[in-house]
Design brief:
It is a single chain. This protein has 208 residues and is α/β, with parallel strands linked by helices. It has helices at residues 14-24, 31-43, 49-62, 79-82, 97-106, 133-141, 156-169, 194-202; strands at residues 64-65, 72-73, 90-94, 112-115, 147-150, 175-178, 205-206. β3 (90-94), α5 (97-106) and β4 (112-115) form a beta-alpha-beta unit. The radius of gyration is 21 Å and the shape is elongated. It starts with 13 loop residues before the first helix and ends with a strand.
């Protein structure tokens, strides 16, 4: 029996399948989870959809990259960089924005952050010039920073990046530390619980 025009093999309209496909591309959501999310939105469209659409529109219009640290926020500089209560002498270097959010969610690091925008990877063709390293060196070179915390993920590429940064920063005479106990090999900060992150922050150790 031929399909009804406008209805896909999954029994949903092309428009709904398109929405499901868009959600499925989000991290942590596969096709099945995306279909469940779409079904929930459809069932609660009168109460949930307007709020969701409004929130997406606001974020789309106001989202900017912080020119100081590389964080993503609705203000530039971001709320973290603009907070006068932050320790101006301590700088935590991370790979991605998600790592900033994960570490700051634990509320243990009171300094400022610097987002590299990735990690060194010869396999993927990512070199120092592809990362936000030049700006990092500028910030450290300007003075006023006593400690740089290298909060790279516990992967081969992450540790390679940390080693490269340590060699670049060391001549500037700044104390360099890195996250220590509690980070499993291959683990990524965004997926770790707050207790593990807390232990890693407290037990950070000097580099070199």
């Amino acid at each position: 029996m031929p399909l009804v025009e406008g209805v896909t093999a999954l029994g949903m309209s092309k428009e709904i399948e398109q929405l499901s496909g868009a959600l499925a591309r989000l991290p942590g959501l596969g096709p099945r989870s995306a279909r469940r999310a779409v079904l929930w939105l459809v069932k609660n469209r009168e109460s949930a959809l307007p709020n969701l659409l409004e929130a997406l529109a606001i974020v789309s219009e106001t989202l900017v990259e912080c020119q100081v640290c590389g964080n993503v926020d609705t203000t530039d500089p971001c709320h973290i960089c603009a907070d006068p209560r932050r320790d101006q002498k301590s700088l935590c270097v991370v790979e991605d924005v998600a790592d900033v959010w994960a570490l700051d969610r634990a509320r243990l690091f009171q300094g400022r952050y610097h987002v590299l925008g990735g990690r060194l990877s010869a396999l993927d063709g990512v070199g120092p010039e592809d990362l936000n390293i030049a700006r990092l060196m500028e910030r450290v070179g300007e003075g006023g920073i006593d400690e740089v915390v290298l909060a790279m993920n516990a992967t081969l590429e992450g540790q390679t990046t940390a080693h490269y940064l340590a060699e670049r920063i060391d001549p500037l005479g700044v104390r360099i530390t890195q996250l220590a106990h509690g980070l499993p090999v291959g683990g990524e900060l965004d997926y770790l619980d707050e207790g593990t992150l807390a232990q890693a922050i407290r037990a950070r150790r000097p580099v070199g």
